[in-house]
Amino acid sequence: MKIARITALLTILFQASLAMAGDIVPFSQTTFDQLTAQGKPVLLDIRATWCPTCRQQKPILERIMQQPAYKDVTLLTIDFDTGKAARKEFKVASQSTLIAFKGAREVGRSVGDTSPNGIEELVRKAAN
């Protein structure tokens, strides 16, 4: 009986934490188009597994996306090596590029920024 109660409590806590966090999902053109058509805030993260700058950005982005202020922001990740069509569409020349959208309008872009304040400012541009 105790295990069932603990499991139920953990499930509730997990669901509550998801409601307070922004989504981090792989990029698809369909998802991007749907979100931006609805006027939703979107952040594109163009990264490569071999990129040291991208590895620095990842935990910063994950922490920022956990903040309640950014629960409505969707972070779409694009693999630099396999996402050539997306890179071309968004005019991305290098990995570690972050692009903020408020609806369909690009509101900010950075390349190689690993400062928590700089990255959060970019996310804030999409969210507000």
From TrEMBL:
CDD domains: TRX_family. Residues 1-21 form the signal peptide. Keywords: Signal. One of its GO terms (molecular function) is protein-disulfide reductase activity. Pfam families: Thioredoxin (PF00085). Residues 1-128 form the Thioredoxin domain. GO terms for cellular component: cytoplasm. This is Thioredoxin family protein. It comes from Rugamonas fusca.
